[in-house]
Design goal:
This is rRNA biogenesis protein rrp5. Pfam families: S1, S1_RRP5. By secondary structure, the chain is mainly β. It has 6 domains: about 45 residues, no CATH class; about 110 residues, Nucleic acid-binding proteins (OB fold (Dihydrolipoamide Acetyltransferase, E2P)); about 80 residues, Nucleic acid-binding proteins (OB fold (Dihydrolipoamide Acetyltransferase, E2P)); about 80 residues, OB fold (Dihydrolipoamide Acetyltransferase, E2P) (Beta Barrel); about 80 residues, Nucleic acid-binding proteins (OB fold (Dihydrolipoamide Acetyltransferase, E2P), Beta Barrel), CATH 2.40.50.140; about 80 residues, Nucleic acid-binding proteins (OB fold (Dihydrolipoamide Acetyltransferase, E2P), Beta Barrel). The protein contains 8 helices and 28 strands. A 5-stranded mixed beta barrel has the order 3-4-5-8-6. Strands 9-10-11-13-12 form a 5-stranded mixed beta barrel. The protein has a 5-stranded mixed β-barrel with strand order 14-15-16-18-17. Strand 22 and strand 23 form a beta hairpin. The chain is rod-shaped. The relative contact order is 0.06.
Length: about 600
């Protein structure tokens, strides 16, 4: 069939396979092909008009005034029967062989009633329920390629085309020529534009651990509302599906458009969404004590970096829309938990959402400076935690510690004369080389390293200069476990009159040195306290290094770091003896302690 016998630019689009045609043979070609002339109603193919294409009849239309599929042109007000409601749309029957759709964004012009909390409520409030016959206006059929509603033509198949409709009062009242055909899309969305939409669902961002709320803004447009732009309430951010119900109405502003990925980003219009705790409005609200939701950005050994979001400056002069702004924050190891550990951030991961409280607002500094300090300590977030459950209280200055207090921290730096130990974000204590160990330390750097987690005891405090002296010597710190798991004590934790089991570590003419099993210090038993005999006593004849003994505490001198012991049998009740035959063994020799009477 030659193209010249047709009166359209695209000749075959007016015909379909299987269609019956009336034609007249005009010539038989030598290649056994027959050329035919298609008859138009007027008898002349050139006189046939484009609009005279055979119309397709509809079956059992809901609106009795409709006869053909081509009658459903944009602007037509007709009737439809609601077949079902699924998600964000109502599925309609315009006829037995013609289907339609009513999107949730085409129900109302103004914000729905406050009682409407989901899509089912919205449809019910507008009278759209399964089985109901409703009055609708045809928008056309949706072409996703050009973001327009197109009229019904011969190219649209009744069985494959879904006709878009609206029941918005403004659209029903408008004149047909006043109705637009353009769809709201990422191409037409402008920053600052206020839009009404409905929650479509919640989507987790890949590899970030936080979420975006999908907002249906139009038939073919879905806005992305980051959950941290919507609230500063951790319970909402951590469980958004419990608070953002599909179909719930929201009013938002366009904050940006990602043209590459065709994504429209939105933020709450007016700064908040009804029923949801409002996000932080500005950086001026970042005050100590303010609760925030943060997203982990990076993790190091002793610092965790996180981001929080606040409303930024206006998008443009005179524009009421605001762009969400990220504020870089830090979480120190000292603000990670109420019980400090060597690996404070081992249980955290990048992208994880945190409930935190601001401990330092950065004095309104640049949001990217990272000067805002956060705390995730349970005691900072709750007021019902007893002090006994806080193993390591926050330390900000020398006024927060006292002499004899056991503290934990991280080695900040090492010098030839000792170490500097961080006890808090803003306090560094000094431990002299003589206070680093009970053993002789020749090279400090071979024993200690920057970042090492250590336990020490405060030896001096100068509040005026904010200086703290520290000792890391186990004999002073105490509280660590011995070889058998027994907790060892400091000298000040030993009481006069106690009976201690220990090991002989050194023997001199003037007495015997004994190291108690449950203490770091070494005590001295003078020769006159070894036996009840009044005659001369040779300690070396009575004891050997490694002997197990039972000793009585006679004197404790914490200031001089001395412990006086007695081994006389008269110090013990019947059946006890200063010489113990049980638990034979030897401890390493340690002569740091001595005693005087």
């Amino acid at each position: 069939m030659a193209k010249s016998y047709n009166d359209r630019t695209k000749p075959f689009m007016r015909f379909k396979i299987g269609q019956s045609l009336r034609c007249t043979p005009v010539r038989v070609a030598s290649n056994r092909r027959t050329l035919v002339l298609l008859q138009s109603p007027s008898g002349s193919p050139s006189s046939r008009d484009a609009d005279s294409v055979e119309q397709r009849a509809v079956k059992e239309p809901v609106d009795p005034a409709i006869n053909f599929f081509e009658d459903y042109q944009p602007g037509l007000i007709t009737q439809a029967r609601v077949r079902s409601i699924k998600g964000m749309q109502a599925n309609l029957d315009l006829a037995t062989n013609v289907k339609g759709r009513l999107h949730i964004t085409e129900l109302v012009d103004e914000a729905p009633e406050p009682s409407a909390k989901n899509s089912g409520d919205i449809f019910a409030l507008t009278g759209v329920q399964p089985g109901a016959t409703i009055r609708v206006r045809v928008l056309g059929w949706h072409d996703a390629n050009v973001y327009k509603f197109l009229p019904i033509t011969h190219r649209a198949s009744p069985m494959k085309t879904v006709i878009e409709t609206t029941i918005r009062p403004s659209q029903l009242a408008a004149k047909a020529e006043e109705m637009g055909t353009s769809l709201l899309s990422w191409k037409t969305a402008k920053p600052g534009q206020v839009l009404r939409g409905f929650v479509k669902g919640v989507k987790d961002l890949a590899n970030r651990g936080n979420s975006v709320v999908l907002i249906a803004l139009g038939v073919s447009l879905v806005g992305h509302l980051h959950v941290l732009d919507a609230t500063s309430d951790y319970s909402v951010a951590a469980h958004p599906t419990r608070h953002f119900t599909p179909g719930a109405p929201v009013e938002v502003q366009v904050s940006g458009v990602d043209k590459k990925n065709r994504i429209v980003f939105v933020i709450p219009h007016g700064g908040a969404i009804a029923g949801i705790a409002a996000p932080i409005a500005s950086q001026e609200e970042l005050l100590p004590g303010t609760r925030v939701v943060a997203s982990v950005a990076a993790i190091t050994q002793h610092v965790m970096f996180a981001d929080i979001r606040v409303a930024g400056p206006p998008l443009a002069a005179g524009n009421s829309a605001f762009r969400a702004q990220r504020v870089n924050c830090k979480i120190s190891a000292f603000d990670s938990a109420d019980t400090l550990s060597a690996e404070p951030f081992s249980s955290y991961s990048k992208g994880q959402l945190l409930e935190a409280v601001i401990v330092d607002g950065g004095n309104g500094s640049d949001p990217k400076s990272g000067k805002v300090q956060l705390s995730v300590r349970p005691s900072a977030l709750r007021n019902d935690i007893p002090a006994s459950d806080i193993a390591d209280p926050p330390i900000a200055s020398a006024a927060d510690v006292s002499v004899g207090q056991v503290v934990r921290g991280f080695i900040n730096s090492i010098t030839e004369v000792g170490c500097f130990v961080s006890l808090g974000r803003t306090l560094v204590a000094r431990a002299l080389i003589s206070e680093l160990s009970d053993e002789y330390v020749r090279d400090v750097k071979s024993v200690f390293a920057a970042g090492m987690f250590v336990t020490g005891i405060v030896t001096s405090v100068d509040v005026a200069t904010n200086r703290v002296g520290l000792s890391l010597r186990p004999s002073k710190v105490g509280a660590s476990s011995g070889p058998d798991g027994q907790k060892k004590r400091r000298l000040d934790q030993i009481g006069v009159g106690e009976s201690l089991r220990g090991t002989v570590t050194r023997i001199e003419d003037y007495g015997v040195f004994v190291r108690p099993d449950d203490a770091f210090t070494t005590g001295l038993c003078y020769v006159r306290e070894i036996a009840d005999s009044e005659g001369p006593i040779d300690p070396k004849a009575l004891y050997e290094i490694g002997d197990r003994v039972l000793a009585k505490v006679l004197k404790v001198d914490v200031a001089s770091d001395r412990l006086a012991l007695g081994l006389k049998s008269s110090y013990f009740a019947a059946g006890q003896s200063s010489a113990s035959d049980s638990d034979n063994g030897s401890d390493s020799d340690n002569d740091n302690g001595s005693a005087s009477d």
